[in-house]
Amino acid sequence: MGYDAARIEVLEGPEAVRERPGMWVGSTKERGLHQLVFMVMGQAVNEVLATGTGSVDVTLTSDGGVRVADDGPGAGFEAPAAGDTGGPGLEALLTSLAAGSEPSGRHTVVVGDLGMGLFVANALSSRLTAEVRHEGVRRTQEYARGVALAPPCAVGPAPGSGTTIAFWPDAEIFETTCCSFAVLAERFRQVAFLNRGLGISLTDERPTGGARTVRFRFPDGVRDFAAALDAEAGARLHPDIVSFGREDPRMAGTMEVALCWTGSREERVRGFANSRATDQGGMHVDGFRDGMAAAVTAYARKRELLSARDPDPVADRIGEGLTAIVSVKLDRPEFLGATRGLLGNAEVRACVSEAVREHLGGWFEENPERAARVVERIVRDARD
Predict the structure, then answer these.
(1) pLDDT tens figures, 67-120
(2) What dihedral angle (degrees, nearest 10) is formed by the CA atoms of 127, 132, 137, 139?
(3) Which end of the chain is flanked by fewer CB atoms within 10 Å, N or C?
């Protein structure tokens, strides 16, 4: 049988997504289902953070749906007026892949592994309703498998402002439409840690015994994150968590670092770029280790804890018992590999290294007794 251009079928709009869902959410199993939630929740987080701190409430409804509500400004369904600096209207985000492409920049948060936005979530849902509360008016629109059933319409007054997206993942696409409360809660907790002051709640209305809710808001951000990891690891060697934040134009972004040493031998160093977990590390984590090694070595030699003949402590020994969070937010993050778990911005390494060396070195000088306990153990382990 011959095959020529006449046999090529071009799929556009929602059908292109529904034909190959794995290309857009990675899987038609539970992992892909969670990506839908992360896409919608990520849009809400960025709406809230664009105007300062606020809150996002996610509800797993008893009928198998997911409702994501925020108290942001409530962007309109239509495109902004000429000269307005806002992004595309909500209707465009729900119906156009180009309008909902992955956000970028230090002020945006990527919640899931994929950032295709509301368009994909709409296409892979059997039903989706959108509600906008803005300037005292509540407007809604409903979709079925990515196709609008009617234009947006005003349905009454609305106190406050914000956006609510409710969607029901399509059972014709996904092998399961039951989200894991634990998986969602853990990721939402991470996002709240990495964006100080942001409030996130997750409510599950599905249990027969009654709804359950968890709420996250961390005023100290990554410092609270390090404290939470530390609590899992055991008692600290000293009562302080060393933390700092810095903006560096050389890397076109900001960094936040928090660290402490525990009595255990396990290393817990977690790296994030624009709130995305970098499980394979990258330049920010390498820079953190460089700065740690430089600060420890300089202090040990200055205090004569190392002799001239002793080699510098190696990085893996310095990390024993260390709990740390290294979070960078960049205007132009460069991820390497198909899973995007490795940050590749070369300039980030030197910037983070310099900052860690300066801040940790300063903490050593200001807290000599506590510094001695940490550095002496590192030097002792290096000699063993």
Answers:
(1) 999 999 887 787 665 445 556 789 988 998 765 555 568 888 888 766 568 999
(2) -30
(3) N
